[in-house]
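== Sequence entry ==
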Amino acid sequence: MVIRVAASQLRDIPPLLGDGQGSYRIRVLGNSGSGKSTLSRQVASILNIPYLSLDELYWQPGWKPTPHDEFRDKIVAFMQTNKSNGWVIEGEYARKGAAVAQEHATDVIWLDPPLLLYFPRLLLRTVLRLVGLESSCSPGCPESVRDAFFSKSGILWWCLHQHRVVIERHSALMKIWGLGIGSKAPEEQKMRRLDGWGSEVTDWLQSVREMPKDI
């Protein structure tokens, strides 16, 4: 079941909470192709804070995965290095060690657009990568037609298979950390869901741009 929050419940809550001292540690979640990288780069640029792609951190050249302990240690090192300035970390990988980023984030943003919106976007991105017009998710990890279209480990099948899985996983997190609905105390609630056909994300980004810069 998808957890929904009425707009009235978030009316008096700023688009980003931060730590109250001007630092924002932002975790962006969502299925493959949901727009995590684009949104994360935009937020990092607006706030002038560093951005980390977990795809690039996890996948070594030749699609070699980083061992889980090493992966987690690299995430922790990035967070510690940028603790005072803030950071944006995007990508899933919770079972591979990335859940630590949720724990230390001041804000958790879940992108949950309709599959009919983002799957065609993912398909186009895949084609562009195959013909060399867009960079791969990690340096040295080119996609192939066989893997992309005919393998169950390929990004397109993975997206379709994970759509419902991701919704269930993050709905469970919303029950704990969701702004206005979570079981945590109000001061510990830090997760919001951005869905719809694009206007909600656009409006949220604009509200981030309009945040007072001295807070």
The chain has nine helices and seven strands.
